[in-house]
Amino acid sequence: MGSLVGQLVLPPNSGHKIWEDPSFIKWRKRDAHVPLHCHESVEGSLRYWYERNKVSLLVSKTAVWDDDAVAKALDCAAYWVKDLPFVKSLSGTWKFFLASSPVSTPSEFYDSSFRDASWASIPVPSNWQMHGFDRPIYTNVVYPFPLNPPKVPEDNPTGCYRTYFYLPKEWEGRRIFLHFEAVDSAFFAWVNGQPLDIGLSMQVQVSYRRCCSQDSRLPAEFEITDFCHPCGSDKMNCLAVQVMRWCDGSYLEDQDHWWLSGIHRDVLLLAKPKQKEKLEIVNASSYATNPRVQAPVAPNCVSTKKVEKRSNEIDKTTGKENVGVSFLLYVEVKIDCSALNIDNSIETGNWFKIAEDKFITSFTIEAEIFDTGSLYTSNGHANLPSTSVAHLQLTSSVDFYLGFIGYQLKGKLQTPKLWTAEQPNLYTLVVTLKDASGHVVDCESCQIGIRKISKAPKQMLGTNLGLFHASYWNGERDKNHACIISWSLGNESSYGPNHAALAGWVREKDTTRFLHYEGGGARTSSTDIVCPMYSHSMGNSTGNIREYWEAIDNTFGLQGGFIWDWVDQALLKEGADGRKQWAYGGDFEDTPNDLNFCLNGLVWPDRSPHPALHEVKFVYQPIKISIKDGIVKVITNTHFFDTTEALEFQWMMLGDGCELGSGTLSIPTVDPQRSYDIKWDAGPWYTPWCTSDATEMFLTITVKLLGSTRWAEAGHVVSSSQLQLPVKKEIAPHIIDGEHGAFFTQVHDDTIEVMNKNLWEIKLNRETGAIKSWKVDGVLVMSKGILPCFWRAPTDNDKGGEAASYLSRWKSAKLNNLIFMTESCTVLNASDNLLKVAVNYLGLPTGGDKNSSLFKVDLVYSIYGSGDVILECQVKPNPDLPPLPRVGLEFNLDKSMDLIKWYGRGPFECYPDRKAAAHVGVYEQDVGSLHVPYIVPGESSGRADVRWVTFQNKDGCGLYASTYGGSPPMQMNASYYSTAELERATRKEELVKGEDIEVHLDHRHMGVGGDDSWSPSVHDKYLVPAVPYSFSIRLSPVTATTSAHSIYTSQLQKN
């Protein structure tokens, strides 16, 4: 290594490509440690955390995801260093130059005298590809460069950065550190022309005064005291950074992501105490003495141990776990006293005992824990020091538990507020180092949480699961975060001896957490849990998830899984029309690429929710409602810690879509993991149920927050469940009264014309059997239709699986190019109040003949004098066909019929395998609002289980449609975009609205799937097999004075 270090004092173009050297990952880079915040006093530490924890929902609403995000990020960086007297942010606008390779950078650009006025400017943090330099690349599993480890391409874009800073006079006498939160992928850094270290995707470097480091998602920290001008000097310090796009570490960081480069997280200057010696608190850690019942490990440094053994019960007044009288807390602190020349050697023959600790005779270490959160509800000035809840004293023992020799402090905390996912309680830990005279040498602080984890076969109890990839740097930085209860060895990286070795290392370093690795399967020694990705939310997806959660809720040992992903990983890009749009793989002319496989989130890139998020919320909701054997299990509180004290319960009953009754449901507080039952006939809903003559009734129980929290405002819906109630009377099919209302019929050579004065008029094409036009009150309502339809615009899940995909099988069967040939169009009955027309279709592939028929469809129109049209449809598909996309009818309405009202599931998009969250009710939206703007278009905007729907213009004139006879509710879709247009466009900006509204009323519609997007994964019960189908639909003209509800219910026969 000595010869290598000798090379490092030369500029990076010396010939040795450090960024391709796997044996070298850092130089002058400090060891990893937990994040600590330095203050001048305990009071300053408490004030900082007290102010930073004043967060609320309103803060989250200020987040932006467009070009303003850059400025907001800089504001955020400034906010987090505000009131930190010994931290200075260097985030801001830097000078920037992009070279084609590390060896073609401007000569000595790192020198203080270098002139950079002609260089461009770039915000830091950022990725240079997002500011007009180079191009982003998205790949899933394919490397974007030739596979020849550890070599990377000679064409290796290299960013050169420069910025300037002054050191404040107040920092005089302190040590100065340069802290990079993260740089991608490899970098060198210089201060005033002096190299610090190498920062590669696993590195960071500085020549003369150069440093380097690797790992593009973790911090790199260097001491630069000797390289800077004196504090208070009017001389500017120059910081230069050289970042390589590719390095040997890039081979390890290839996993389904955008390849972006640059200083992409904050850069900080830190001032630490120096005095005459090099002395500071550099690490603080925690551990538990009982790995089966432990209550610590928090954002930094705390471990607990119960002093008094007693059974843990839930306090019925507070809903909190009664964990006993007090807990023992342990804090382990590491002091950097390397310059003191103190020999704290280990006693011969006893690895766990220091012969004599000379350091502690001259210095004092103190630790104290504060509960400042208890003051957030108080008025006036907060007395922060008064919130002390525990004093920790130095013990004589030294523990090697977390891998370094540290000083251990111990104290008692009376009945702590445990950290849980439901109530993430945090304390403030302040560690102070004092000299012999009592002067504060260093004062460091952090937030900590105290948690309890119980392990049992097939169970993880205590908090929700937080996985984090394990490495030395990850482990040291994040080991004290209470929210992390499991380490992960990585993702989709196969399995080999390195995984087993890493698993052993992790378990030795930290026995308080689980270990997870999916790649080796459930039977390897490298995982304690089986935690797969069970849903892939790519585009219109996330079907089947209710089935998984029914199994999870009812199967011992199942406790959840992972949905991939939270957010669509798209980038903002200016389109050809000058408007910004969300871009995916290939949009930057990046090759290779994996197209839109990065778009698999539950929310769009701007964090607005996909419709699927409603379904996820439903299966996750903590309050469950059910009915069985006359008992409404009104509350099953699945929380492990919270009672229902802070919640309000409301009920509402609907009959045929109309509200029958509602109110507040008064029930006692329900403890965690407990239920409360109400007899069906004892509930407030029983009277309206008894007195209503509705054909179907639903009871909805909604649970809301009584008061505002940090994460939601009062009234936020926590849970909402709908139960279909027992039917009181048997309902017969719809019966149309044809005795009233005569009409006039004319049969021409090519047209059948039916009309009732000026109320309505229908023209049918005798050759095709389709409706040419339908007018109501003289207004054109239907412009084209009605035809069978079996095709849908393919979704991402339809495309997954290559030759085995649904789309490939559909295309092989030629379902995508169907035309309907009319075999016959026959008038079966013609009277003054009834016209029956039978149409027989053959569904043929384009260019095919009768012998290649894929479908035989018999459609019978029954047109009554009332204006009702009953469509009876018989479908006989070729039995050799694959599962069908849909079975239904398609027609086109005039563009003015854009006001939609329906009785079915909603209000958001839902499909047969993703509809549990969509309650049955009456909803209204315009056609434009029905549309779901998936970044890559496909089948979308459907509404499930529709009983009836109206399509009307602003004057109320339009068309009514409903199921008829014994047909089940239908899947409904209405869009300005035709199926062909949704299939043609590769992005939403390419969509062109049609001249009318395309409507689909489906008897059956295939689920959207969601187990994954690379194999056909729609569950069997949501497939539409190629078998005969029979269904009926009713159409009626409506005007402003017409009630859809009345049409639906007036001719129902009740037995």
Automatic annotation (TrEMBL):
Enzyme class (EC, first level): hydrolase
UniProt catalytic activity = Hydrolysis of terminal non-reducing beta-D-galactose residues in beta-D-galactosides
The entry's keywords? Glycosidase, Hydrolase
- Fetch the InterPro entries from UniProt: B-gal_small/dom_5, Bact_Beta-galactosidase, Beta-gal/glucu_dom_sf, Gal_mutarotase_sf_dom, Galactose-bd-like_sf, GH, GH-type_carb-bd, Glyco_hydro_2_AS
Q: Which GO terms describe its molecular function?
A: beta-galactosidase activity; carbohydrate binding
**A GO biological process held by the record:** lactose catabolic process
Task: Say which family it is in.
Answer: Belongs to the glycosyl hydrolase 2 family.
Protein name from the UniProt record: beta-galactosidase
According to its UniProt entry, this protein's organism is Sesamum angolense
